[in-house]
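Late entry, evening session. Most of the bench is empty. Finally got around to the prediction I had been postponing all week. Sequence below, unchanged from the version circulated by S.P.
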Amino acid sequence: MLIGEYKHILDTKKRLAVPAKFRRFFKQGAVITRGIDNCLVLYSLKEWENMANKLGKLPASQTEARSFARVMLAGAMAVKFDRLGRILVPDYLKEYALLKKKAVIIGLYNRLEIWSEEKWKIYRKQAEKQVGDLAGKLGELGL
């Protein structure tokens, strides 16, 4: 299970170290792509295949479905871990996520999100202020 929040540095060669405790989830391979809210998402190859399969089944006749599938699939790139557990973040994804030097990696059960430290602080503060309302709405869904 991927959970927790970790701060890391994007080096000058655009490499980002993934926390050691998470690396075993990516032994079969990994895919990085655009996420929602200007973050990046790192999927294991198995999880990515599940996601890509769902995206591929979205109705091409619906504008929103086409747009979402295009953004996610066109933005995706297979990545390999070097011997130090780092992945290379492509320029177009680095720009999309507004990544500079400081990054935050958060575990979300079956995937990791990669945020610029500044964007994550803003997002987290807003979400924390709304946690009561969010819990109430999610309670209606059975959580």
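Two things to note before I forget:
The CA atoms of residues 30 and 44 lie 4 Å apart.
The beta strands are 2-9, 15-17, 30-34, 40-44, 77-79, 86-88, 102-109, 112-116.
Will write this up properly tomorrow.
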